[in-house]
Give the backbone structure.
Amino acid sequence: MKHIIKSQQLDQKLINRIFALATALEKKKSQVLKGKIMASLFYEPSTRTRFSFESAMIRLGGSVITTENAKEFSSVAKGETLEDSIKVIGNYADVIVLRHDEQGSAERAASVSSVPIINAGDGAGQHPTQALLDLYTIKRELGKIDGITLALVGDLKNGRTIRSLSYLLGKYKNIKIYFVSPIGLRVGEDIKIYLKEQQTDYEETTDLFSIVGKVDVLYQTRIQKERFATKKEYEKFNGCYTIDGELVKKMKIKSIIMHPLPRVNEILTEVDKLPQAVYFKQTYYGLLIRMALLKLVIKL
Ligand code: CP
């Protein structure tokens, strides 16, 4: 594995290897990346992905060079192309973690890069490292992935975490997915075609209340304000599904609530203290997964 671009490239054997390494790195500290450099090149805002990758690199003994607003603070502001930036940064770093606002940008970067590219989110495309940490959270919290029922809720049209997670879930047995969204924000056809091919059972619904008691995982997402053409269009969907204490009472005791974060208003803070809420723990599991990924892709 050189680049990490999309979930489709990850098979169960590799996923298990990444999970095992993440768990091992949690138990035993390692400075295995001492002398290596990670460049984080972010054209879009981020809290979790950038900081967790940077923390992961430093925890493994490596160093970080970074631009958190590449559109303004890199030579892109002078008109440099992504391809040229990547060719240059490859001379300075052993791995590039890239977040970009255009779908397909990670693939473009990989096609010219001399060092591994890790896709940290490409527009409404994919966010494969988020999907890995989501799956790892499920495995750690529920003890299994096969046989579970999930509700993926919110902006399923624009949410890249949902796309990447669906592609991974299709690799597991006896999964049932409820895609819960307003009609205008339904999950893409490519995901539905893929799940049919994988014989993964799924249903689309607008009604969260009717299914919430059946699920093991309630995966809530934000309405992706930045992907709407106008504020008016966004406001049509803002607040369409809110998880509150009353809704959680309808859930199974052993179920979990996940969210890639950031949240806006779609999970009330009263839910944070409930045993089902694992979305902050999910960010910790993300650190472990990103340590494992850096160790796997950087040439030692
Ligand atoms: N989940 C996620 O990608 O968060 P950030 O946008 O803060 O990186």
Remarks:
- The beta strands are 37-42, 63-67, 95-100, 117-122, 149-153, 176-180, 201-205, 217-220, 256-258.
- The chain has two domains: 7-127+284-298, 128-283.
- The pocket of phosphoric acid mono(formamide)ester is lined by residues 46-49, 121, 127, 130, 260-262 (CB under 6 Å).
